[in-house]
């Protein structure tokens, strides 16, 4: 496998073509952003930590029967993935209230959400990722109804697998965002699962262990990501 031209550079990762038209290389960079790209910083080791963290989680999900784009980790900061036609929506499941749902509905941070709730957002920074519903996705042609249902089902299935995994390591999975895409008509989990795209709290103290440390200037961002990984048994080398 040979890495070829850069296809796209996002806020945190770059996507490269390869000599195989069905495979891309994802390069996890140290760039960190929040608030639709308005707060930006480079954090040492972030690319490496998120790449290794994501590889660990994707393998766990595959083992649990969730099909993902992940093929293999190539280096400290790069992974090989299947090329997807990305669906431009973010799928969010929440177990505890935090972030935008608190502001939107006046909920206190940390309130249990039972049963866990689901939200779709349009992936569009210029529009500030507005919340959308199934009808918008179907009517505007972002995905067809069968794939909409499957995205919901799979995002909840990820909760079943990961909630327990974090609980065993004395952490709470508060919420997370997933992105899906199509490969030969098949829906696969794409993008990444790392502390950049979810909320994780220490189960006893409720200390924030995710990107809220960056958003809220709490310090020790990558040190804390490494602690989350270490508790899950991830070796960052
Ligand atoms: P953003 O687009 O939010 O700035 P990133 O910096 O993480 O995000 O960029 C990665 C981009 O690659 C995202 O747009 C994501 O949707 C896309 N992507 C993730 N996995 C794949 C894949 N397997 N095939 C094609 N594109 C992908
Ligand atoms: N999230 C994300 N990318 C986004 C928006 C949200 O990864 O563009 C994640 C975020 O880290 C959290 C979950 O999705 O784990 C729910 O985010 P929320 O709607 O509360 O938005 P925020 O508070 O980040 O504005």
List its salient traits.
Phosphorylase Kinase, domain 1; five-stranded antiparallel β-sheet; binds uridine-5'-diphosphate; 30% helix; D-amino Acid Aminotransferase, Chain A, domain 1; 35% strand; binds adenosine-5'-diphosphate; alpha+beta; 237 residues; single chain; seven-stranded antiparallel β-sheet
Summarize the structure.
It is built from six helices and 14 strands.
**What share of residues are in beta strands?**
25-35%
Q: What's the tally of helices?
A: 6
Q: Report the strand count.
A: 14
| Helix-strand pattern | EEEEEHEEEEHEEHHEEEHH
> Strand pairing plus helix content: what structural class?
alpha+beta
Radius of gyration: 17 Å
CATH superfamily of the largest domain: ATP-grasp fold, B domain
Structure description:
With 237 residues, this protein is of the alpha+beta class. The chain folds into two domains: 80 residues, Phosphorylase Kinase, domain 1 (2-Layer Sandwich); 136 residues, ATP-grasp fold, B domain (D-amino Acid Aminotransferase, Chain A, domain 1, 2-Layer Sandwich). It contains six helices and 14 strands. The strands form three sheets. Strands 8, 9, 10, 11, 12, 13 and 14 form a seven-stranded antiparallel β-sheet that branches. The chain has a five-stranded antiparallel β-sheet with strand order 1-2-3-7-6. A hairpin with a 2-residue loop joins strand 12 and strand 13. The site of adenosine-5'-diphosphate has 16 residues, from strand 2, strand 7 and strand 12.
């Amino acid at each position: 496998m040979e890495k070829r031209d850069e296809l796209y550079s996002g806020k945190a990762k770059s996507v490269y073509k390869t000599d195989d038209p069905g495979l891309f290389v994802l390069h996890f960079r140290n760039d960190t952003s929040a608030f639709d790209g308005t707060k930006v910083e480079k954090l040492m080791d972030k690319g490496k930590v998120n790449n290794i963290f994501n590889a660990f989680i994707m393998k766990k999900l595959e083992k649990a029967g969730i099909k993902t784009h992940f093929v293999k980790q190539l280096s400290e900061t790069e992974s090989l993935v299947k090329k997807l036609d990305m669906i431009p929506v973010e799928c969010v499941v929440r177990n505890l209230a935090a972030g935008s749902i608190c502001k939107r509905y006046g909920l206190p941070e940390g309130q249990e959400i039972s049963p866990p709730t689901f939200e779709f957002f349009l992936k569009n920074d210029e529009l500030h990722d507005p919340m959308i519903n199934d009808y918008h996705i179907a009517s505007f042609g972002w995905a067809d109804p069968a794939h909409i249902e499957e995205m919901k089902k799979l995002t909840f299935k990820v909760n079943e697998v990961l909630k327990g995994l974090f609980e065993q390591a004395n952490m709470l999975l508060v919420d997370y965002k997933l992105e899906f895409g199509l490969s030969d008509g098949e829906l696969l989990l794409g993008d990444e699962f790392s502390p950049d795209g979810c909320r994780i709290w220490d189960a006893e103290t409720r200390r924030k262990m995710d990107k809220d440390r960056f958003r809220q200037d709490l310090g020790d961002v990558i040190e804390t990501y490494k602690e989350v990984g270490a508790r899950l048994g991830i070796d960052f080398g």
